[in-house]
Write a structure and sequence with these properties.
By secondary structure, this protein is mainly α. Helix content is 66%, strand content 0%.
């Protein structure tokens, strides 16, 4: 069992770093996730996907941290956000801008984009990890990608479409 859990640590670290945007917070999140996984190992069903189970624990831990922080939340108006501008240096600056833009997404969109784009999970796996319906995964992915495109294009507010 040690080897199965240990092989998940690099993925957990990568996802936690992308979620939190901070190495220290990411390490804390991974540690909390591993502690909870070890404590609840008896609840894991043999034959099920260990990766999905661990990511579910991380998701729930992250949400708990977000809820605790909301008590001390600071209002973030569009004016407070830094809107990235198109860099003249190509790849490295584009990656920096993308990382910054991902950090500005609401966590609901960010976690879906990261699990699908970075961790290459299927929609079904993401739905299982986050405990949400498949349709919600698809809509959050679509909205998150649209918001990401707007941020990368330097637009401060998402474009709303009128539906009749």
């Amino acid at each position: 069992m040690d080897a199965v859990i240990t092989e998940q640590i690099p993925r957990l670290r990568r996802y936690a770093r992308a979620l939190t945007g901070d190495r220290s917070s990411a390490d804390d999140l991974v540690q909390d996730t591993l502690e909870r996984a070890w404590g609840k190992l008896h609840l894991w069903r043999r034959g099920s996907d260990m990766r999905a189970w661990m990511f579910s624990i991380m998701h729930n831990t992250f949400i708990n941290h977000i809820r605790k922080k909301q008590l001390d939340a600071v209002s973030m108006d569009d004016e407070a956000l830094e809107i990235p501008t198109r860099a003249t240096q190509e790849d490295a600056l584009q990656m920096r801008d993308l990382s910054s833009a991902i950090g500005k997404l609401a966590y609901e969109y960010r976690e879906v984009i990261l699990l699908i784009g970075l961790e290459q999970m299927s929609y079904e796996e993401v739905a299982q990890v986050l405990g949400i319906p498949l349709g919600t995964v698809m809509s959050r992915l679509s909205r998150g990608r649209e918001r990401l495109r707007n941020i990368m294009a330097g637009e401060s507010a998402p474009m709303l479409r009128r539906v009749k």
